[in-house]
């Protein structure tokens, strides 16, 4: 413990000098480092000399037109430079967020494409242009320790919702296809008949909780072998585009694919809808005190709770 404390004290005392050391190595002279830090060349020289005394080694060879690293200095630079670069990038990002309010929303591709994007202009109109919105789409939920988001929206079990989280959209899933596909292969009297048709699947990472075709059939009490292999995609937008093109039947999350159905690009293949105890859940970085994320969080929560009234979706029976 004594050695660790001693190293920590040395590091804390030498951190400014290490920064100066990295800058001198970068510029190859004291004057460039002094200008970058806004101090005198003499102050930089004193920092470097103090660091050399502290470490007991010479870090630079003083030459007529500048300095060059010694072997010990080169070894130290390999460790110091990446650390200083990472710290500098982090500080720069925080300063940028302070100067221009920015809200980063993490969600899967389906929610980003079919729920967030259609409402983004309205969100900006209501909250103003002073808040920069960034959407970070990823098929897998971000690691809980990750800090690269302000608001997180992903599918999870409603039974695991914790304090401060908000349930936005319960998972209600129907089988959907293009009207042309249905005309070629329909009518489809029962969901069990889908086992003989081409099914389009969304690849599911182990950490994801959304519905699969197997879970959908299980929810309806349907068992049996499929006659065709799945056509699988790792992006829900590709799944829907393939369904629109008439390649097969896809799972359609009601609340997301509604717009495609209203445009008659997709239609429910059967009347069956499977409702699960999972859905889109929203959380936010509670450590942040910035106003922007709170405003966006509340706007999304209110919009999800009070969606704009829309006509019922067309189904196969209405075609």
Automatic annotation (TrEMBL):
Keywords: DNA-binding, Transcription, Transcription regulation. Residues 18-70 form the HTH lysR-type domain. It holds the Pfam family LysR_substrate. This is LysR family transcriptional regulator. Belongs to the LysR transcriptional regulatory family.
């Amino acid at each position: 413990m004594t050695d660790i404390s001693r190293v920590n004290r040395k590091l804390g005392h030498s951190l400014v000098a290490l920064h100066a050391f990295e800058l001198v190595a970068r510029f190859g002279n004291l004057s460039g480092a002094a200008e970058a830090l806004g101090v005198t060349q003499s102050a930089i020289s004193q920092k470097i000399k103090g660091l050399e005394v502290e470490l007991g080694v010479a870090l630079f060879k003083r030459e007529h037109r500048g300095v060059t690293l010694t072997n010990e200095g080169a070894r130290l630079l390999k460790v110091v430079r990446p650390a200083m670069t990472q710290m500098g990038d982090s500080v720069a990002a925080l300063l940028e967020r302070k100067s221009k309010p920015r809200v980063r929303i993490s969600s899967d591709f389906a929610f980003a494409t079919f729920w967030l994007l259609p409402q983004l202009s309205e969100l900006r109109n209501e909250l103003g242009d002073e808040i920069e919105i960034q959407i970070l789409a990823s098929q897998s939920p971000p690691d809980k320790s990750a800090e690269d988001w302000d608001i997180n929206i992903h599918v999870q079990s409603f039974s695991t919702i914790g304090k401060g989280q908000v349930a936005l959209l319960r998972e209600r899933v129907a089988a959907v296809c293009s009207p042309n596909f249905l005309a070629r292969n329909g009518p489809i009297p029962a969901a069990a008949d889908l086992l003989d048709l081409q099914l389009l699947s969304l690849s599911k990472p182990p950490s994801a909780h959304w519905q699969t075709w197997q879970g959908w059939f299980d929810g309806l009490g349907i068992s049996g072998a499929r006659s065709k292999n799945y056509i699988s995609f790792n992006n829900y937008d590709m799944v829907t585009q393939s369904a629109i093109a008439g390649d097969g039947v896809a799972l359609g999350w009601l609340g997301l694919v509604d717009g495609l159905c209203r445009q008659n690009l997709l239609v429910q293949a059967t009347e069956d809808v499977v409702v699960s105890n999972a859905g889109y859940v929203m959380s936010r970085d509670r450590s942040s005190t910035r106003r922007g994320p709170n405003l966006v969080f509340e706007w999304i929560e209110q919009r999800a709770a009070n969606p704009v009234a829309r006509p019922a979706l067309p189904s196969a029976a209405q075609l």
